[in-house]
Specification:
With 485 residues, this protein is mainly α. The protein has 20 helices and four strands. It folds into two domains: 2-350, no CATH class; 355-481, no CATH class. Helix content is 59%, strand content 4%. Strands 1-2-4-3 form a four-stranded mixed β-sheet.
Length: 485
């Protein structure tokens, strides 16, 4: 019953998010209109010299999943959220089936409650419109398939092949995703491991590269972009401390394993599994603690942490009543800890209901200027007023160009790339005659969150020389190209 209530709550908050006019984060915005590029048949990965170049470090799977929903449902902010929400519920279903098959029906309730509780503790990351829901789903599928296919009556190659394929799909989301699958190889691909692990590696490589055979995903620019970003990243102490704080729920299997070892009841394979999981989480602190990242890089370990916790509870050999008391206690503790992030997510949606009004203002501007290209730029505020730019995909869905996304230019400045000559030329030539800028703000004056630098200054100078403010609205000012002469 409690697991069903937790699932219903996930459905409720996902529904609220689906109906919300905006997004939680600019990363969702970037995924939304890049996926729309794919729907339009345009390449996602471009060289820096291209006038519509936007830095992209996610792999093709993110855009294939989100693009499929946009292609099916049409271009809209709501449609751009469907893939992440669907992935969240598919992960719950896959994990529930895994628990029933591995532990029995009696374990489904607190297994799912613990899984859902950890999801809710990490809200909104497990269901938002970025890469994380797909990563969690890929790991959950790898766990379920690996555990099922590792049974003695299955051929030795089945589990490593399935784990490898899921790993390749996850690496096609985020390139470091192999970390999430290391514990699965240790636990479910130990038979004939000298053959099994290379087989898993080959399967992962093929799954990783397969989408790059499509014209929308040229491999060279993607690799160049990823290497450029990764090469300048270093650990930031504040982010590391934050990540250390958030890994505690994922480390729950460790004390349970120590207790089970003390009682002499842990199978060697399960002890190695927990050890590999803890090691992978610790290594995962690096991508979670570098500039521009955060602890959400650790969230895909969630299915493995819950699975390992259930295995250690089973290893303790407690009487059913004691076992149930411990299991339900752990699950309810997690649900209790999840209340704060859930309340915070709902408050974000409620307090920013004004985004619906801002969206209506954009619709009014587009209707008043039919056939004229309109883009959205930035102001100075990098916090609250910046969020009106989260509605930018509306312009893309209506056929308008997108050549700035803030994050891309901030990253380009951080890695030492000069301002784009092609985009400066576009501004000089008034290739886009109309621009929406957050109301009352200086155009393109936003400082970098990495360095505090005025990284948009070259663009602002050209924009100021070529455009003038024509009218002001509640949320946006409309800027138009000055007539020549």
């Amino acid at each position: 019953m409690l697991a069903a209530l937790a699932l219903a709550w996930l459905g409720l908050i996902a529904w609220r998010y689906l109906g919300f006019a905006g997004y939680f984060d600019h990363g969702e915005v970037n995924v939304a209109f890049r996926a729309w590029r794919m729907v339009q048949g345009l390449p996602l990965y471009l060289l820096p010299e291209a006038p519509d170049y936007l830095l992209t470090v996610y792999g093709p799977t993110v855009y294939l999943a989100n693009g499929a929903m946009l292609g099916l449902l049409g271009g809209s902010i709501a449609a751009s959220k469907v893939a992440g929400i669907a992935a969240a519920f598919l992960a719950v279903l896959a994990f529930g089936l895994h628990v029933r098959g591995r532990f029995g029906a009696a374990w489904i309730g607190y297994g799912l409650l613990l899984f859902l509780g950890l999801q809710m503790m990490a809200a909104p990351f497990p269901y938002w419109s970025r890469a994380d829901p797909l990563s969690i789903l890929a790991v959950t599928l790898g766990l379920a398939a690996g555990a099922r296919l590792a049974e003695p009556d299955r051929p030795w190659w089945a589990a490593p092949l399935a784990i490898g394929l899921c790993c390749g799909v996850a690496m096609n989301v985020k390139i470091h995703a192999f970390l999430y699958f290391f514990p699965l190889l240790i636990r479910f691909a130990a038979r004939r491991w000298l053959w099994a692990w290379p087989l898993a590696g080959l399967a992962a490589l093929l799954a990783l590269l397969a989408p790059f055979t499509l014209a929308a995903f040229p491999l060279g620019p993607y690799v160049a972009g990823v290497l450029k970003v990764v090469s300048v990243r270093g650990i930031e102490t504040k982010l590391l401390l934050n990540s250390l704080q958030h890994i505690l729920p994922l480390m729950a299997p460790l004390p349970l394993m120590l207790l089970a070892l003390w009682r002499g009841r842990v199978a060697r394979a399960d002890a190695l599994y927990v050890g590999a999981l803890i090691l992978a989480i610790l290594v995962g602190l690096y991508p979670a603690s570098v500039a521009g990242s955060s602890w959400y890089q650790l969230i895909p370990f969630l299915p493995l942490a819950v699975d390992a916790t259930l295995r250690m509870l089973a290893s303790l050999g407690l009487a059913p009543r004691r076992r149930d008391a411990v299991a339900w206690g752990v699950a309810l503790l997690v649900i209790g800890l999840a209340l704060v992030p859930q309340r915070r997510g709902l408050r974000y949606i409620t307090e920013r209901s004004w985004m619906g009004e801002a969206a209506a203002e954009i619709e009014t501007v587009m209707a008043a200027h039919p056939g004229r290209p309109i883009e959205m730029g930035f102001g100075k505020d990098v916090a609250e007023r910046y969020r009106v730019t989260f509605l930018k995909p509306m312009l893309a869905y209506a056929g308008h160009p997108v050549t700035f996304d803030g994050w891309s230019d901030m990253e380009a400045d951080f890695i030492g790339r000069p301002p784009s000559a092609a985009r400066l030329e576009r501004l000089q030539d008034c290739a886009t005659p109309l621009w929406l800028i957050p109301a009352g703000e200086e155009p393109f004056a936003m400082p970098s969150v990495f360095s505090g630098r005025d990284f948009l200054a070259p663009y602002r100078a050209v924009f100021r020389a070529r455009y003038e403010r024509r009218q002001g609205g509640q949320y946006f000012d409309l800027w138009e190209c000055r007539p020549v002469g």
